[in-house]
Amino acid sequence: MFERFTSDARAVVAGAQQDAIRLGSPRIDPLHLLAALLHLPDSTAGRLLAGFGVALDDVAAETTRVRRRGGITEADAEALGEFGIDVDAILDRVGQAHGPDALTGGAGGRRRWRTPFSTESKKVLQVCQNEAISLGGKELGTEHVLLALAATRGPAADVLARFDVDARRVRQALA
Fold first, then answer.
1. CB 48 within 8 A of CB 145
2. Residue pair 46/56 in contact by the 8 Å Cβ criterion
3. Which of 48, 110, 120, 143 has fewest C-beta within 10 Å?
4. Which residues of the chain have pLDDT under 50?
5. N- to C-terminal Cα separation, the chain
6. Cα–Cα distance measured from residue 143 to residue 64, given in angstroms and rounded to the nearest whole number
7. Phi/psi-derived region of residue 70, left when phi > 0, alpha when psi is between -120 and 50, beta in every other case
8. Is the dihedral of CA 92, 97, 79, 37 positive or negative?
9. Cα–Cα dist 66/159, whole Å
């Protein structure tokens, strides 16, 4: 599959792996893909986000915040708040007991030579390929990665939705 990726899309995959290793994550998840995508502001996806009026630094900050929360997005926190559950208070207590990055997914232990993709990331990459084909492209670019992240349910899609970026909007911009 990766032979069809543009050089920028390959850089996203490599950057996601570097991000996962840096954070000590046992797997590359969609938030790693999103974080890596944000490091390429001159890519097609970076230009699309800028065209939507989205500041990449704001998305990066939200991605970090969601990761710190163990994948709990603002929408999740608000929903839990309706049941009287204060996510930030829980995070503070977990941080006091286990360290500030206890929920970031770090595994500790020995390092691997290669960090595998999570099931969710594999799904994003499959959706990426399907979207590129449905849009008539022969190559998979960063715009397809962005579209797949927005189209695949989970924390990365939730982060993008917080900035009014969803699959429909990305598809329209690519049409």
1. no
2. yes
3. 110
4. 107-110
5. 23
6. 22
7. left
8. positive
9. 8
Distance separating alpha carbons of residues 119 and 115, to the nearest angstrom: 13
Q: What is the predicted pLDDT for the residue at 169?
A: 95
* pLDDT tens readout for residues 116-135: 999 999 999 999 999 888 88
The rounded distance, in Å, linking the Cα atoms of 7 and 107 is: 30
- Structure tokens given for 173: 């911009």
70 within 8 A of 105, measured Cβ to Cβ = yes
Q: Which two tokens stand for residue 20?
A: 């996962």
For the chain, what's the residue count?
Answer: 175
- The tokens for 115 are 């960090």
In tens, the pLDDT along 58-70 reads 998 988 888 887 7
